[in-house]
Amino acid sequence: MTEVRVPTLGESVTEATVATWFKKPGDAVAVDEMLCELETDKVTVEVPAPSAGVMGDIVAAEGDTVGVNALLANIVAGDAAAAAPAPAAEAAPAAASGGSVDVMVPTLGESVTEATVSSWFKAVGDTVKQDEMLCELETDKVSVEVPAPTSGVLTEITAAEGATVDASAKLAVISASGVVASTPAAVAAAPAPASNKDVENAPSANKLMAEKGIDPTSVQGSGRDGRIMKEDVAGAAAPVAAAVAAVAPAVAPAAAPRAPVSTDDAAREERVKMTRLRQTIARRLKDSQNTAAMLTTYNEVDMGEVMALRNQYKDQFEKKHGVRLGFMSFFTKACCHALREVPEVNAEIDGTDIVYKNFVHMGVAAGTPTGLVVPVIRDADAMSFAEIEKAIAEKGRRARDGKLSMAEMQGGTFTLSNGGVYGSLMSSPILNPPQSGILGMHKIQDRPMAINGEVVIRPMMYLALSYDHRIVDGKGAVTFLVRVKEALEDPRRLLMDL
């Protein structure tokens, strides 16, 4: 018997969620055939079969959270029917033969671990057909409709509207027998008789109706599916107050003017659960601030020579190499040049040791729809301009598509962060631990500069180097930044290795 275990997930990643099993107990598997897919807060990891055989028992089911080296399943040799336990579908009676089928939360997508039940289209006791929509879930990205896995009768709802469910939760039960389970969850999911509606009103609206003594049936809801919102109750309260005032005894003392009902700020807020990727970004950035003695030094660079060189050769460059000539290759080359002179910026601290890297694995920060990632271009110091541009383009495309592997985001020694693409004029980048340096690039902006006693307009960019002051002194940081500035203002220095 061969054990299938969670592979190494990457630097600082300690757990993953089992997203999908491609094999079930009893299936034959070949060496390196994909068995399952794990989702971390950064990427999706496929788990191959370590040996050929028959799929035995699955220890970690879909939706389970597992740590590094945790046991996922077993592979055994021999006949498939004899080697593995009976599949779950055979162990339990099918719905068609009078059994029940659980309705589970479907796969929600990478980095999405929970959802909110927004609407039920069916009630307990309703007949449903296979693939008929039962309910709708809302995540921080999309709405997901949940179809019926089989035909039968909806006998139990275990997650009512408004409930937050994780990726492996049970939503309901469908039975062919039609016997409705008398459970608290089923009762809670049934429509409240007082309102004669199948939708839940806003909590603030229920509270206000109770305070005002307003019958919910007399309020017209403006929310989704007719939900009563607080504004609807406030509008209905005005005629009621006027009617009460009209029938009040004439001798009654005049009531003090009542302040209008203030708008509930909470009703105008939107609360969205942070994704696992966003939680990891937040944790790592805060850890960086807490651990490193981080300091930032600034300079500015005249981009005129680089822009002129790029404009002169960009068409020939793209025709020959099949990739556009951008600014990132110039900055990568300039940084590699400066790191050779100031190696501590390319080093890291390991306990009481300083580890100097005699190579440059350049991290290039990239914004994606799910958050910030930093793919690494390995041995960037040995690459040509064309190789660097091709690598940046390919990594950026994979980052936007969510296809980066853990290996592609590990081992960086220095990082470039280009906030200028978003219009940033100045910022202080945060270190990407365990690295000791990160260069922030910014927007190129025409500014008046004094050159040889004359004021001229030049395309200028602010540069910001954040560094770990535990290993990099101020002299080294300033020297590094000056060398980058010199290489960009006179790109010929890169050719002459000056």
Describe it.
InterPro entries: 2-oxoacid_dehydrogenase, 2-oxoacid_DH_actylTfrase, Biotin_lipoyl, CAT-like_dom_sf, E3-bd_dom_sf, PSBD, Single_hybrid_motif, SucB. Its cofactor is (R)-lipoate. Residues 200-237 form the Peripheral subunit-binding (PSBD) domain. It catalyses: N(6)-[(R)-dihydrolipoyl]-L-lysyl-[protein] + succinyl-CoA = N(6)-[(R)-S(8)-succinyldihydrolipoyl]-L-lysyl-[protein] + CoA. This is Dihydrolipoyllysine-residue succinyltransferase component of 2-oxoglutarate dehydrogenase complex. By secondary structure, the chain is an alpha+beta fold. The protein folds into four domains: 2-91, Beta Barrel (OB fold (Dihydrolipoamide Acetyltransferase, E2P)), CATH 2.40.50.100; 95-189, Beta Barrel (OB fold (Dihydrolipoamide Acetyltransferase, E2P)); 203-268, E3-binding domain (Dihydrolipoamide Transferase), CATH 4.10.320.10; 276-496, Chloramphenicol Acetyltransferase (2-Layer Sandwich), CATH 3.30.559. It contains eleven helices and 27 strands. The protein has helices spanning 80-83, 88-91, 184-189, 203-212, 230-247, 276-291, 304-321, 328-341, 385-400, 474-489, 492-496; strands at 2-5, 15-21, 28-29, 34-39, 44-48, 53-58, 65-67, 71-76, 100-104, 114-120, 127-128, 133-138, 143-147, 152-157, 164-166, 170-175, 294-302, 348-350, 353-355, 362-364, 366-368, 371-373, 376-377, 414-418, 437-441, 445-451, 454-468. Strands 17, 20, 23, 24, 25, 26 and 27 form a seven-stranded mixed beta sheet that branches. The protein has a four-stranded antiparallel beta sheet with strand order 1-8-6-3, with no helix packed on it. The chain has a four-stranded antiparallel beta sheet with strand order 5-4-2-7, with no helix packed on it. A hairpin with a 2-residue loop joins strand 18 (348-350) and strand 19. The longest helix has 18 residues, at 230-247. The model is unreliable at 80-97, 182-197 and 247-252 (pLDDT under 50).
